[in-house]
């Protein structure tokens, strides 16, 4: 059995500097409802679920046709604020970088406060876009596993991966960079990041 799932990302043209709010999400859903009502019966999409991630609206569609409908319905439309909307398959968006960061500082233990602290100390780092995957308290501080945005990664590269964390600075370690991995791997004849295959009986 082969299940095809299409993931569409809807975002502001100025993203990541300008992100969706819940009010923006509601406006988009209302606009999509209007388009849906005008869509001929034979062209109706199968839309599964949506969520706000990193300031973008991520929509799961049941098939390619539904993804194309959604992209056409949204791309180049505008919010009431005037912000232009863009839509593309989520696989085309820049992939986050997975890093590990040890800090001995105990200025703050709350991870949200720590990320804000890092942003204040390191201009150019968009820590509001970072996602904490794992946090471990240690006798001499804490260890974080993070997904960070590519713009922040570029800034950190320029500093030799050194990040000021308060009372000291630490070196971040890259655990996984999808862009580097993609460049290093041979590309097969047929590739689809949205294709999920389930083999039954074998």
UniProtKB/TrEMBL annotation:
TM region positions: none
Pfam families for this protein: DUF4780
Signal peptide range in chain numbering: 1-16
Disordered: annotated span: 179-202
InterPro entries noted in UniProt: DUF4780
UniProt domain DUF4780: residue ranges: 7-169
Name recorded for this polypeptide: DUF4780 domain-containing protein
Lineage of the organism: Eukaryota, Metazoa, Ecdysozoa, Arthropoda, Hexapoda
């Amino acid at each position: 059995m082969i299940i095809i799932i299409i993931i569409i990302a809807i975002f502001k043209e100025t993203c990541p500097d300008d992100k969706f709010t819940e009010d923006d999400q509601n406006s988009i859903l209302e606009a999509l409802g209007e388009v849906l009502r005008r869509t001929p019966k034979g062209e109706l999409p199968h839309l599964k679920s949506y969520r706000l991630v990193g300031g973008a609206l991520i929509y799961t569609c049941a098939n390619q046709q539904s993804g194309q409908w959604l992209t056409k319905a949204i791309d180049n439309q505008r919010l009431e604020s005037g912000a232009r909307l863009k839509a593309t398959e989520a696989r085309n968006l820049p992939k986050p970088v997975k890093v590990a960061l040890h800090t001995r500082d105990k200025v703050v233990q709350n991870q949200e406060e720590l990320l804000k602290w890092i942003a204040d100390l390191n201009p150019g780092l968009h820590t509001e876009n970072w996602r904490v995957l794992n946090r471990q308290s240690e006798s001499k501080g804490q260890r974080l596993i993070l997904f960070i945005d590519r713009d922040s990664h570029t800034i950190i590269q320029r500093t030799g991966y050194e990040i000021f964390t308060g009372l000291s600075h630490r070196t971040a370690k890259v655990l996984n960079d999808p862009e580097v991995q993609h460049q290093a791997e041979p590309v097969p004849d047929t590739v689809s990041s949205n294709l999920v295959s389930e083999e039954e009986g074998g």
